Amino acid sequence: MYIYDEYDHSILRQRIAQFRGQTERFLAGELPPEQFLPLRLQNGLYVQRLAPMLRINVPYGMVNSAQLRKLAHIARHYDKGYCHVTTRQNIQYNWPDLTEVPDILAELAEVGMHGTQSSGNCIRNTTSDQFAGVAPDEIIDPRPYCEIIRQWSSFHPEFAFLPRKFKIAVTGSTQDRAAVQVHDIGLQVVFNDKGEVGFKVYVGGGLGRTPVIGVAIREFLPEEDLLSYLEAILRVYNLFGRRDNKYKARIKILVRALTPEVFAQKVEDEWQHLKDGYNKLTQSEIERAKGFFTAPAYETIDNAAAQASLDKQAADSVAFGKWLQRNVRQHKISGYASVTLSLKPTGVAPGDITDAQLEVIANLADKFSFGEARTTHEQNIVLADVKKTELFALWQECKTAGFATPNIGTITDIICCPGGDFCSLANAKSIPIAEAIQRQFEDLDYVYDLGDIDLNISGCMNACGHHHVGHIGILGVDKSGKEFYQVQLGGSASNDASLGDVLGPSFGADDMPAVIQKIVDVFVANRTAEELFIDTYRRIGAAPFKEKVYAKAN
Amino acid sequence: MPKLIKDGLIVDNTWTLIAKAEGDAAAVEVPAGQVLIPVAVWIAQKAQLQNRTDIGVWLDSDEGAESIGTDANRFAVIGVNFPLFMDGRAFSTARLLRERFGFTGELRALGNFMRDQLCYLRRCGVNAFAFANPEANLDEAVKSLTDLQEYYQASVDQPLPLFRRRA
Known about the structure:
The structure holds 2 protein chains of 2 kinds.
Chain A: H1 6-27, H2 33-41, E1 45-47, E2 52-56, E3 62-64, H3 65-78, E4 82-85, E5 91-93, H4 101-110, E6 127-128, H5 143-153, E7 168-171, E8 185-191, E9 197-203, E10 215-222, H6 226-240, H7 251-258, H8 260-274, H9 283-290, H10 303-316, H11 318-327, E11 328-330, E12 336-341, E13 352-354, H12 355-368, E14 372-375, E15 381-387, H13 391-401, E16 415-416, H14 431-440, H15 444-450, E17 455-458, E18 472-479, E19 482-489, E20 501-502, E21 507-508, H16 512-526, H17 533-540, H18 543-549
Parallel strand pairs in A: 6-7, 7-8, 16-17, 17-18
Antiparallel strand pairs in A: 1-2, 2-5, 3-14, 4-5, 4-13, 8-9, 9-10, 11-12, 12-15, 14-15, 18-19, 19-20, 19-21
Helix pairs in contact in A: 1-2, 1-4, 3-12, 6-8, 7-8, 10-11, 14-16, 16-17, 16-18
Chain B: E1 3-6, E2 9-12, E3 16-17, E4 35-38, H1 39-49, E5 55-59, E6 77-82, H2 89-100, E7 106-111, H3 118-123, E8 128-131, H4 138-141, H5 162-165
Parallel strand pairs in B: 3-4, 4-5, 5-6, 6-7, 7-8
Antiparallel strand pairs in B: 1-2, 1-8
C-alpha cells in the first residue's frame, strides 16, 4: 500500500499545526463558531447529538496493521473503546473531546492517517473496491489512480469551499463493487481498443434527498489526463453549482439542470485549456504510484491439495463450510483467498468495532495477510491475501474474536448508518431496526437459501445507509415526532445500478421485522431456481409485494 | 486610512471601493482618483474610462473572470468579492484571471472571506486582502498566509505539481 514519504508527512504536519491553532483560537473566543465550523468539518470533526464525532479517512479502504493498532489506541485512550466503519470506508469515533482532537490527529499522523476533508464542502476520501488488486475479475488495479487522486484532492486550494460535498469512487473490475454510479464522479478504469489505459467517467450520481444514477460523460479518458479532467469538472461545478439552497447544491442537480450534454461540453471547453498543462500525469508518476501496489510475496501453493484439504475441513465442520461459502472469496492468485471479517453479528451496531478487536485484526493481518487489511463500504473488514492452507486457522481465530458470523452478502449483512442513536441529522433510529431484522432472520440455513440480499438502512434522507440502492432499502422518517420507516425495493449499487421504488406508506418500528419477512416470503413464493431477490423483484414488479405487505388482516 | 494585506505586508488601502448600484451601470458616476468599480460599470463605460490608469474593477462571486477577459492587464487592481466566506467561486475566478487571462497586477480579495482562507487564496493567485470587517486583526491574519508551505497540486504560486518536483 502507499507509504508516506517526507513530503506527505510534512504536508500533514503543517495541517495539524494549522488546525491546532484554529482550535485554540476557537476555544479562546477569537474564531467565531460559524467560521470554525467549516474548518473543523474539513478536519473530520462534527458536533453530534451527544458529543463531537471525528471521522478519520481510510484512503480507498487500505489500512495496515500499524494503523489498526493506532486506531485501537485512539479508541481506548480518547474514546469509549470502540469506533465505527462507515459506508465510505472511513472510521468514526463518537466520543472524542474537542480539546483533544488536535492531539488525536497528531497521533494519527504518526502512521500517515488523518481526518482531512472527511467532511465539509470539499473533495472527500476517494473510495474503491475492497478487492482491488486481488479480484479475479479485475481489469486494472484502481489503487494507484486512487492515490494520485488522493494527493491531488488533498488541500486543493481551489476546491475547499465548493457548493457542497464531493465524492469520487474508482473501480477497476468488471463487477463494480465501489458503487461508482452513485458518486459525484465515478471512474471505471478501462482499456481502449488500442490497449491503452484510461477511464470511463460518470458524473452526477448520488444518493441523499435526490437520488440520481450518474451519467457517463466520457467513454475513454486517457490516464495521463486524469487530473486535468477532474480539475475541469470541479471548476465547472465550483463556478456554476447552486449555492442558494444546500439541498440543490450537489453536482447532480447542476448536471440535470444543464443536461448531461451541456455539462459535458462545458467540462470539455474548460479541459481544453488545462489538458496540456503541468497536471498532465507523467508516466514516471503513474509508475511510482503503481510501485506501491505491487503484488506481495505470494508463495507457490499447491492449489489442488489446499482445496482438497479445505473441502475435507468443510465436510467435518458445517460451521466452517458456511463461513467458506459466505465470507471467503476467490483470489486472482491460485492457492490464495480473500476473507471478509463480518462486523455484523446480531446485537452489535453494524460496522462497530472495539479497540481489542482492532488489535486482533492487526495481528491477523500480520499473521495471515501481509500486514494489510481493507475497510469495505458494506462496513466489514477484508483480509485480502490469505493462503488457503491457513483459512481454517484464521477461521478459528475469527470465531474467538467475533468476526466469523458467516453472513456476508446475506440479508443480515446490513448496511446501516449510526442513525438517531448518535447522529444529530437523523429522523429515526436505524441500529435497533437492523438488530430486530437480524433477529428475525436468525436461521442461517434459511438465510443462505435466500441468497444475496442487500438490505440497507438510513436514519434520514441524507442516505448515509445507502437505502436507495439496497435491494431492500429502509428509510427512517419522522411523523409528528414519532419514528416511522419507509420501505423501498429494487435498488442496486452494482453495474446495473438502480434506485429502489417506495413500496407504500411507512411502518412503525415494531412492525419492521414482520414487514421484511412478508417481503421475503413473496420472493420465496415467486422466485425461479436461479433468481436472486433483485431478479425476482425486477421480473414481477412491486405489486405482489404491496399486496402482501398491505393486506388487511382478516 | 484603512489598511489591507498586500504581498505579506500591512499597507494603506488607497483604493476606494465603488459598490454595485441599482439601475443602469452606464449612468453610474465614476469619481476621480483610485477607484475599484463594479465590472458592469466598466463594461458599460469602457469608452469613457479606458484611458484612465486609476481604475480597477471588481467581480462579484457570480461574475466570471471572462467578463474581464483579455482586458485584465489594463488594470492595476482587480478585486474578487466574497459575499459569504462559504462562497468559494472566487478561488476559481482568481486562478482564471492569473492563469487564463495572464493578469499580473494586484489581485485583491474583498468582502467576507476569513483569515483561514488566506493561504488557499494566495495559492490561487490572490496577493492582496481587504477584509470587509474593519475589526479584522491584520497582524494576526497575515500569519495564515503561510499555514501550508508544501503542496501536492499545481496552482498559481507553484505551477509544478509535487509529482513533477518530488525527489
